[in-house]
Design a protein that fits this description.
11% helix; Immunoglobulin-like; globular; 4 helices; 3-stranded antiparallel beta sheet; 2 domains
Amino acid sequence: MLRRIAASLIAIASFLSAGTLARAQANAPQSRVYRLAPSSTYQQGCFEPCMCPLMVAAPVRGTFRLVPTAIGDVFQFFTVQDVRWIVELPSSPIVHHVVGSGSYKISLGTNTRTHQLTLDLAIDQNLTQHFDSGLVPMNGPFPRIDITISINGVWCLDTVFTLHARPLVWVNVGSSSVAWQGSPDSTGFDVARGDLGALRASGGNFAASTVECLANGASAFSMPYAAVPTPGHGFYFIARDTLGPTAQTWDEGDVAQIRSRDPSLQQASGSCP
C-alpha cells in the first residue's frame, strides 16, 4: 500500500515543485535530471585565430534530462531532453532563454574514455542552431559531464557553451527504507521530510512544512524508514549534497523555480543544519 500512496504523492509534489522534491520511485530512474554547476559559461564572439574582441561572456544555469537509449559495442548512447537554461548577462537586465534537445554518448571500457554531446538549441526563440563538442576525452567519471559545445568548433566567430553538469540527488522511497543517489562528486547528503498539506497551505513555505531531518551529512546511501501518511495526507522528501561542487543548496537549478528554497529551509525546525 505504501508504494501506491508514494506514487500518488510524487505526482502532487512534483506539480508543486519539480526536481529533488519528492523524487520517490519504486525502482531506479531510467533518466536523470542534471543541474549546471555555477562554473558553466556562455560565450559569443571571436576566438582564435581571429583577432577581434570577445563580445559576450556570462554564466549559464539550468537543467536538462539525460535518458539512456542503447549500449553498443563501443559506446553507450543517451538522448538529451528538456534543455532549459538561462544566460544572465553581467551588469545588464538582458536574460537569454535557451531551450533544446539532442544526444550524448560515452565510450565503454576502462582506458582513456571519450564522450560527445550534440544539442540543437534555440536562444530567445531564434532559429535552432546545432552545437557539437566533437568526440573528446572525458575529464572525470560519468555520470558527471564536463564538456564544451559550439557551433563552429570554437573557431573565429562562434557561440560556445562550457558545461559542468551533475545529476540532481534522487530519492527513492520504498516500503521499509529511503535511499538516495547523487553524482560521483557527492560524498555527503542531507535528506529531510515534510508535510505535503502544510506545504500547499503555506504557499510553498518549507520553513512551515519541513518536519524532520532524516539524514544529516550522511555518507551512506539509504536508511530504514517505514512511516506511512494517514489517509488524506502526504509526505514530501527533499535532498541535497553536502560535499561536492554543487553542495549546500536545496535548489535544483530549474529555470521555473521562482525563488530559492534555502532561506526557508534554514529556518525550519525540522530541517538539517
